[in-house]
Amino acid sequence: MTEQSQAPHSEQAPRQDSQPPPYAFYVAAIAIVAPCLVYFLSMWLFGDLFQDAAAPLGSLFTLIGTVSGAYFGIKVSNDTSARSQGAIERAHGSAEEANRRAQQAHDTAQQALAELDPNVARRVVGGAPEDATR
Q1: For the whole prediction, is pTM greater than 0.85?
Q2: Considering only CA atoms, which of 90, 111, 112, 92 is closest in space to residue 100?
């Protein structure tokens, strides 16, 4: 391939926004895995002391539900915030473009009126009927 044929490919490559590492995911994963390991190790080492494994297992599931609920709640909230910020920025850009076009149309109309005969310009701006100006 020549350099000319390679240039468009490098320009067309999608840009990836650099996102920070998902530290919240790491914390949530550790908060779930660590108690699971403690539970299984304690059941393995001290299993004969427990009459019923339901109490520690219930506590473990409560912890897992709490951590995963908090993680996904915060994640959804952050994702929604990021999407709404993007929508706001796009809307602001659209409004700026509309304002620019309106200003350009206004300037063009002003230039067109300046080029007209003053009587015709008064009639156009004032909306006077044609018979009254003749």
Answers
A1: no
A2: 92
Q: Which residue has the tokens 């200003």?
A: 103
20-40 pLDDT tens trace: 777 788 888 888 888 888 888
Q: Sign of dihedral through CA atoms 49, 51, 53, 55?
A: negative
Give me the residue spans of the domains in the chain.
23-41+58-126
Tell me the backbone φ, ψ of residue 73, rounded to 5 degrees.
-65, -45
CA nearest neighbour of 113 among 101, 126, 103: 126
Please provide the DSSP assignment of 41-62 as one string.
Answer: HHHHHHGGG-S-SHHHHHHHHH
Q: How many CB atoms lie within 10 A of CB 35?
A: 17
